[in-house]
Structures are given as C-alpha cells and as structure tokens.
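I hope you will forgive my troubling you with a question about protein structure. Could you please explain, in whatever detail you think fit, how the structure tokens follow from the sequence? Thank you for your consideration; the sequence and its tokens are set out here.
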Amino acid sequence: MLQIQGFVFNFASENTYIIYNENKNAWLFDPGNMNEQETRVIENFIAENGLKIEKIILTHAHIDHVLGLQWAFDTYKVPVLMHRDDKEVLDMFQISGMRFGMELNHINVDIEYIDEGDELDFEGQKFKVYHVPGHSPGSVIYHNENQKFMISGDVLFEGSIGRTDLYKGNYEQLIEGIKTKLFVLDTDTQVFSGHGNPTKIGFEKQHNPFLK
C-alpha cells in the first residue's frame, strides 16, 4: 500500500509529493523547496520516516516545480525522470528565475527520459505515464490504477486547468489531452495536483467549467 505525503512550497504554493511504501522506499515528485526552511521540512520527514529516495520524478519543469531539484539530485544521487519535451523548459531555469528577481544557478542533473505509454514499477505498483501537453510541452501524468490515484502536475486542478499562456502552451491541446486520457479513467480516481487540493476525476467531469 502506497502512502502519499504532500508539501506546499515556494512563492507559487506548489505541491511537492513523496510516495512511499511499507519497505520505506520512496519517490520524490516535483521538488519545489526553495530555501533552507522548506528543505529542512522535507529532509525531516524523510529522516523521521526512515525513507530511501529511489527516484526523483518531474511532472514538468516549470520553475516552481524544480526549485529544489538540484538539492534533491545532489542529496539522493538518483536520476531525474522527465519527458524530453520539457528539457528546453528546464534549461530556461535561470532565465525564469530572473523574471521573479532570483539569481539561480543552472541545473545540472542526470536525466532519464520517459514517454507516453511507459510504465514505472514501484515494487509491484505500476504507474502509467500519459503525455498531456498544453500547460508545458512535456507535461506528464503518473497514474496508479491499482490505488486509483494520479500525480497530475499542472494539467488538471480542482475546478480548473493549467495555464496555457506560458511558453509553448496550447489550450486546445490541453483540453483534448484531459478529455481523451484522463476523463476515460475511473471516476473515483484521485487527482493530486501541482497546486491546491486533491480532487477526483468524476467531480471534474461534472463540475469543472473548462471541461463542460
């Protein structure tokens, strides 16, 4: 049985997630910790629960989702999984930081690229990968069918969708991806988004004003 722990970090109130099992193995999604205090919060949780970080995984590479990426890679020394279409976004990290008045160093990590249809194995728990661009070119969803939940990044929110006015955003592409790849899933599937509260596929099908 997988456990999910969320943390709200940085100026954008971004959701970072740790998924872990009874064997204390863990995956870290979208490390957005941006200062020493936030980093201490996540370090303490990992230490107190005796967790071993086996993978660092990105839903996409916008600045608010990767502010802690270099720290995570340097600390846990495991590859970073992401879609290759967001490598260009990751390479814009320093430029993005300047827009928010931050001086940031270039991110230098080992990357393993994932793609639509890939399946990640967490000790028997499978995560299917769906490529759903539109918010960013390489946005991906990680769906665990067995426990009926997904880590959705900024594709789908409670009552909303990801912004499409950012670099290489595409509104029609995002809507099409949500309807054809996410809304065909079990209505009880929980959606752990990149910002805000968790929601469910069934609720969004009925109530999300962008997807009527």
The chain is about 25% helix and 30% strand.
